[in-house]
Amino acid sequence: MASAESSGSLHKRLGSTAAPPQAKRQAPRASKPEPQYVYIVMVESMLSYGESSSDIHGVYASVQDANNFVKKYAYEEYTQAEEVTRGTNSDGTVFWSSEDVGEGDRAEIRVQIMEVKPVGSEKEREWVDGEDDGEEDDEEQDED
Questions:
Q1: pTM (2 decimals)?
Q2: Spans of biased composition, class Acidic residues (predicted)?
């Protein structure tokens, strides 16, 4: 009769312990990244005959650069301005406005702070087809 060792039916485990396996360490949760901001310089012009406009004149990575642009733009563009109001908001942004920049027009320059949304913050979407999407069906165009 063959021995148990040679037949392979019995196997003696060497170096085995009865202790349960160690639990894996849980990875620390990734900390939420600090929000990032951009500083947008807005120029609003109100013309005396009623038309007005609001334009973006720059997007900056620092509030200091945005503030410096506001000061430069006001100095260069509105040298003849009267009734000027200027100052610093509690968030550190500056503003400038005038009730009369010439010919009865008014203007305001300010910095708007916007938080940069991280990559993946919006779920991927497809265009939704519908009657109000601004396109006519090909069949309707063929009937004309």
A1: 0.65
A2: 129-144
Instruction: Find the length of the chain.
Output: 144
Structural domain includes residue 142: no
Does any domain span residue 22? no
Q: Looking at the domain assignment, is residue 2 inside a domain?
A: no
List the domain range (segments joined by +) for residue 91. 36-116
Query: Cα–Cα distance between 70 and 109 in angstroms, integer?
Result: 6
CA pair distance 100, 85, nearest whole angstrom:
11
For residue range 13-36, list pLDDT tens digits in order.
Answer: 666 566 666 766 776 676 788 899
Q: What backbone phi and psi angles, to 5 degrees, belong to 63?
A: -65, -35
Inside any domain, residue 55: yes
For the record, the structure tokens of 90 come out as 């509690």
